[in-house]
Specification:
This protein is α/β, with parallel strands linked by helices. The protein has two domains: about 5-230, Vaccinia Virus protein VP39 (Rossmann fold), CATH 3.40.50.150; about 250-365 and about 475-645, EreA-like (biosynthetic domain) (EreA/ChaN-like  fold, 3-Layer(aba) Sandwich), CATH 3.40.1660.10. Helices cover about 40% and strands about 20% of the residues. β3 (about 80-85), α4 and β4 form a beta-alpha-beta unit. It is elongated. Bound molecules: S-adenosyl-L-homocysteine. S-adenosyl-L-homocysteine binds near residues 134 and 205.
């Protein structure tokens, strides 16, 4: 068959029949000799319905995709077009027949040169090839009536939007993972308004550049664009991006967070440890991620042995005799409250409906309850290996004098010459891990629990010893332990396992972009997750302007319901308040201007279990770059304190066996 007939057949079978209607596009696809743009030796495959290799690990796009993008860009003869990702030069040659001029950028010099030669050989004079980073566009030739991107981006590069003429169309594949994307059409409607439409699921090679992916597949940090570029104020920009939150009980609430469901870990924060709305929102999101998207780990900022009691309850595993009710330690309201109870009851009911190996568990990442961890390890060994239990008793005996008040252990060791227990607890942890094979024959879940308790004791011993010095080291040890616990859980549940984390904003927002990291050298779980999982981790902050909060005035003090001061004028919270977005999700990835404005450091409020309204600035505010710290923010303008369980016995719907021991 002559090649022109082969091309005509390709156009009929692969394009017309699949719905490409634009006559100009069909003609161009018939006329441009695709066989001239493939690697020598591959000509016979030039008309196949697939991408083909062109060197440097890149591909010439499948004919259908080239036609689909050209049609979506609605090219007309006077148009100036930018193409990102020249590759073979084939798509540029097609576009050159539909528009006035095509500017095309390729990041591999070898491909750019080869494309230039092919286009010159074909006598095409209206295509200009440049080697460089196309995520930054081609500023000297801008604005463009159409921009077509032939590689998958993590998000729409701000530079490309800026180089789009009013009325211009940007066609670009965007996706959180490097492998599959959604083809988007962004139209520049008026100066400040862009409209985005999703066209189809697609699969492109990654867009690698300053506003795309890094070479090793992480999200590149966008270069700084001065905030003055936006004509709107910060509150106006927040208002534009804010998506209103439905009621907590409305399934649409959780569905709004489906955009994060493909991530390996979704971290949900809170701006205090005693705000009902933060718990209820995390409950709604987590239900959705578990029930619809296969998440099976809920890992929270709670002590491991206490959360383990909840886990046994929600996964319908046998209770352990002799354990007291969990979460008796200050601050009890953090987990013994009506919102957590509602979630726990839901989780058990949900788990009743799925097979055992698909039940979602509830786990604690934190290290404070050393005493229960010791009891748990000993109880475990008593059952599976009594000889080992005797040795463990002796080793942990070293910590006995300090179990009630571990915080004085560090001082005693450092200043009063008491013996350190480090060697003993580390040896004990190693011994248990070394017997994994023996012990897991009994019950993998129980082994995981015992091993994690042994790890916790080793971490806690060190934590209390170095806490005495103050400084970043003990914080870093605690957050590293929490992150490693998360990793152990993911590993234990298999390659496909996905986790939701509930912890304070100070743990889940990337510490590098707050005073914690930049001034105090503290790291946290959010940072470690980004370093480990890249774009596969979603960091979602939660915050509020005013209302009430459950907190104590001092450590170990009684819980009080306190008024939260309206946020300070110079804080992020005030900008959210001024936006009039009462309850909303603000997804930073959707708005480049917003990201730029929120990048400027401002004060952010952190309320913990202690709240001191009188010294708020000193005690609770720190500077942060919000859009770098988080991927999104969940905002409740006014919030209420959680209700502790002890005050509300006889909760409706909470069964007698409920693990909080009601
Ligand atoms: N339109 C091309 C298809 C190319 S595949 C054709 O018809 O043959 C995508 C191309 O994008 C690859 O050649 C890749 O090297 C290039 N690319 C990826 N990131 C880029 C960037 N930031 N700037 C320019 N080119 C890029």
């Amino acid at each position: 068959m002559p090649v022109s007939a082969a091309r005509a057949k390709m156009v009929e079978r692969q394009l017309s029949r699949r719905g490409i209607r634009d006559e100009g596009v069909l003609r161009a696809m018939r006329d441009v000799p695709r066989e001239d743009y493939v690697e020598p030796g591959m000509e016979e495959f030039a008309f196949d319905d697939s991408p083909l290799p062109i060197g440097e690990g890149q591909t010439i796009s499948q004919p259908y995709i080239v036609a689909f993008m050209a049609e979506a860009a609605a090219l007309s003869p006077g148009d100036r077009v930018l193409e990102v990702g020249t590759g073979s030069g084939y798509a540029a040659a097609v576009f050159s027949r539909l528009a006035k001029a095509v500017y095309t950028v390729e990041r591999y010099p070898s491909l750019a040169d080869a494309a230039k030669q092919r286009l010159a050989r074909a006598g095409i004079g209206n295509v200009f090839v440049q080697f460089g980073d196309g995520t930054l566009g081609w500023a000297d030739a801008a604005p463009f009536d159409a921009i077509i991107v032939a590689a998958g981006a993590p998000e729409v590069p701000a530079a490309l939007k800026q180089q789009l003429a009013i009325g211009g169309r940007l066609i670009i594949p965007v996706g959180a993972s490097g492998e599959s994307q959604s083809l988007l059409k962004v139209t520049h409607v008026t100066e400040a308004l862009y409209e985005t439409e999703e066209l189809a699921p697609v699969r492109f090679v990654p867009l690698v550049g300053a506003q795309g992916w890094t070479e090793d597949g992480r999200r590149a940090a966008a270069p700084h664009v001065p905030a003055q570029m936006s004509c709107l104020t910060l509150p106006q920009t927040i208002a534009r991006a804010a998506e209103p939150l439905p009621d907590f009980d409305d399934p649409a609430f959780g569905a709004l967070f489906d955009r994060f469901a493909s991530r390996r870990v979704v971290l949900l924060g809170e701006a205090s440890h005693g705000t009902s709305e933060f718990y209820r929102a995390r409950d709604a999101i987590t239900r959705r991620l578990i029930a619809q998207h296969g998440f099976s780990i809920v890992a929270v900022e709670a002590d491991w042995p206490d959360a383990a009691a909840i886990d046994r309850y929600v996964r319908l595993r046998p209770d352990r005799h002799g354990d007291g009710a969990p979460f008796q330690r200050f601050p009890t309201w953090m987990w013994r409250n009506t919102d957590v109870a509602a979630f726990v009851v839901w989780l058990r009911r949900h788990n009743e409906t799925v097979p055992q190996d698909r039940r979602a568990g509830f786990f604690g990442l934190d290290i404070y309850n050393m005493r229960s961890s010791i009891a748990a390890v000993l109880a475990y060994l008593d059952r599976v290996d009594p000889d080992a239990a005797t040795i463990a008793r002796e080793r942990y005996g070293c910590l006995t004098p300090w179990q009630k008040e571990p915080s004085i252990y560090g001082r005693a060791v450092l200043t009063e010459g008491y013996k350190t227990c480090e060697g003993a607890v580390v040896r004990q942890c190693r011994d248990i891990l070394a017997k994994q094979l023996d012990y897991t024959r009994d019950d993998g879940d129980r082994f995981l629990d015992a091993a994690q308790n042994a790890r916790l004791i080793a971490s806690a011993e060190r934590y209390y010893r170095i806490m005495y010095y103050g400084g970043a080291e003990s914080w870093n040890l605690r957050d590293t332990h929490m992150f490693e616990t998360l990793e152990h859980l993911l590993r234990a549940k298999g390659d496909e396992a996905k986790a939701v984390v509930w912890a304070h904003n100070s743990h889940i927002g990337d510490a590098r972009h707050t005073e914690m990291g930049s001034v105090r050298s503290e790291l946290n779980i959010g940072q470690l997750c980004r370093e480990r999982f890249g774009a596969d981790a979603a960091l979602i902050g939660f915050s509020t302007h005013t209302g009430t909060v459950a907190a104590a005035a001092d450590w170990d003090g009684p819980m009080e319901t306190m008024q939260v001061q309206p946020s300070r004028r110079d804080s992020f919270e005030r900008a959210f308040h001024d936006s009039d977005a009462r309850r909303s999700l603000v997804d930073f990835s959707r708005d480049a201007a917003l990201r730029e404005l929120l990048r400027e450091p401002r004060l952010e409020r952190f309320i913990g279990v202690i709240y001191r309204p009188d010294s708020e600035l000193m005690s609770h505010y720190a500077e942060a770059s919000l859009s770098q710290q988080f991927d999104a923010m969940v905002w409740f303008d006014e919030t209420q304190a959680v209700e502790p369980l002890s005050r509300s016995r006889g909760q409706q719907g909470v069964p007698d066996t409920y693990p909080f021991g009601l």
